[in-house]
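Worked example 2:
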Amino acid sequence: MSLMGRRKKTEQETIVSSTAMARSANGKESFIRNNFENLKKFRAWMIWYPDLFLDLLRPETGGIHWDLDQRVFMRADARFMAFSGCFPRGYGKTLEEVADMVVLCIAYPNMTIALSAQTKENAAALVKEKWIELVRFYPCLENELAKKVSFTNNTAEICFRNGSKIDVLQNHNNAKGQRRKRLRMEESALVDQATYQDALAPVTEVGRYTAGRLAIVDPCEMNRQINRYTTPGWRGSDEHQFTLTMIQNMRNLGGQIVLGSDWMLPCWYGRGRTKSQIFEKKKNTNPTAFEQNYGGRWTGSTSGALVSISKLLACRTLETPVFKPEKDDEIYMAVDVARSQNSANNQSSIAVIRLRRNTANQRISAIELINIFNVANTLNYTNQAVIVKRTRKQYGAKICVVDGNGLGAGLVDELLKDTIDPMTGESLGCWNTTNTTNEPEDVLNADSCVFDLKAQSFQTKVLTDFIDVVGNGTLRLLEQRTYNAFDSDNDPDYQDKMMPYIQTDLLIEEIANLKLETNGKMLSVKKEVSKIDKDRFSALAYAVFYVCEYENQTKMFHKYEFDDLFRFRAPNIWGR
């Protein structure tokens, strides 16, 4: 075929293709015009009933048959300006909220919704897992995608044909400057109010503009919607107060709603663990942990708490524990002693703290709890002394504060003996007290590093010092980490890295369980729930007391010129 013939044929094919496209476009346009009112009603219906819309997409076999409580959850998630959901582990709230996010992105063009969590890695893993599950139940959802979904370790991105997008953020200050139309917050109980107001609330400041030439921000749309989901936390925390405020706004018809349940609701519908499994878990789980994760109750002291739980949680700013201190670190440690043949009783605890000082006057600017250990109470005093001395050798602590009352006297006696490490055979030394007349076994070579604390006589001062360091923010504790923050399969040091965070969680639980009582001028603490120990708190409080009372003296530094040493004022002999 000649070149002219080929060109003519190509032109004819182009004209035919363009005509077909025009007819197709005109057909779509005429369909939209003829059914415009019905399409508007259908879109409003799918936004108001996201669960029923997903029912339309369900294949003949398979799919999800949503339970009644799940339908209520999804409709509340889509209909209210703010929704707070407080549900137990295994309820399925994350799947339901991601399903709602998908429906809203299909309904609204150019919608951007983010799911935020404690870390971006955690948020990305949640979105990836739930998206794969939704596509398995509703395969036709993939037809709405503009391109293949993108998942990495710390990112997740689902882009739709109409320009909408689902991605992830972190519940942290690094969310500043980000902009989304709506936000879903996972584990909101871990977010303090300052971070929420400063970093997360402004994320939804800019509303979604409608499509077309006359694009506006629709006043009837749920712009700046922020929904929060969590398991219960501590009474008096920022999230607890925020939930109470939302309940009041719900009563006043302020466009907000709060829903919640315990483990019995999903169990009734056959989701999650069975009733017998829950009861078995309750037997083997800490009471507070069970109430928060499954019982649906906010825990902690209702009134007269030792310290404000919000201020205590605000102290959790230390990112990593310390296993091998630096050369110039100033470290102290304290021991709360327990001794029993019953492993269910209190255990001995060792708190290791590091001081930060003000360079101007050398006063303490921060007290950092860099690690905390529990020692089995079934060990005799000799074995406990080995662990205490081994810990001091690891950290190079200047002073070891020991509760010398009652049972603690036995440990003090063992510390004043020369101790051999049974694992290495090396000598751990002989210690001496700094504040008593007790004589060590090796008087000449004993290291004076034990402060024998008679806790009962110092009880009021111990408590007031602890309340002060929490109230003024001097105390720094390890931040909260989820158990999947470390690679448990490939990291041989997983337990060592994770344990300090777990111990700090248990410390918070102990402190939140304490009520402050007064007896005249004397202060004491009482446990709200008797099953919860207070050994970690006692060890930390003893360490705080010692450094505040004995290591916080102001040191003044004066600068003198050398010539000033030889300058004298002339004597006034004549009284003039």
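Residues 40-281 form a domain with the Rossmann fold fold (CATH 3.40.50.300). The chain is about 40% helix and 20% strand.
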